[in-house]
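To the wet lab folks,

You asked to see what we're planning to order before we commit. Fair enough. Below is the target structure as tokens, and below that is the sequence we designed to fit it. If anything looks off to you, flag it before the synthesis order goes out.
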């Protein structure tokens, strides 16, 4: 009888050990998956933040250039390319609202930048500059919300 009890105790111990090992494996796999998802979400957020900053920086350079200020040797075409490139990245990575806000920044900045060449008078150029700046403000607010930076 003692043999059967030992055998049963050994079998129960083995089953408990196997169940504990399986539970530990499942928990470790879940934690690893959660860590991968967290890291992927953080990487995507960081990519969006970089694209948002690139768009805002290019828009500012183009506005400065349109006012006749120096922008470190950049040409208007270089800056327009940078502006569009940032918008393309935003279109691939960002929510629809941010895509629309980014497009408004791009379009309104380009409109302001080309106003002088289109013969717009000083008052109209000033108005277009304010429109472009308002688009930047809306984009910045949207970016803060998207990146969870709002206070």
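Sequence we intend to order:
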């Amino acid at each position: 009888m003692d043999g059967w009890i030992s055998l049963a105790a050994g079998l129960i111990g083995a089953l408990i050990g196997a169940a504990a090992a399986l539970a530990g494996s499942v928990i470790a796999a879940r934690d690893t998956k959660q860590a991968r998802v967290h890291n992927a979400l953080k990487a995507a957020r960081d990519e969006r933040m970089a694209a948002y900053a690139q768009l805002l920086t290019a828009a500012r350079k183009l506005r400065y250039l349109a006012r006749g200020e120096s922008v470190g040797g950049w040409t208007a075409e270089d800056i327009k390319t940078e502006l569009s490139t940032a918008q393309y990245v935003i279109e691939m990575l960002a929510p629809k609202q941010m895509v629309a806000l980014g497009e408004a920044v791009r379009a309104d900045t380009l409109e302001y930048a080309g106003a002088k060449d289109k013969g717009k008078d000083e008052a109209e150029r000033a108005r277009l500059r304010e429109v472009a700046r308002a688009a930047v403000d809306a984009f910045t607010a949207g970016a803060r919300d998207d990146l969870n930076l709002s206070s």
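Structural context that might help your review: The mean pLDDT is 86. The radius of gyration is 29 Å.

Thanks,
Computational group
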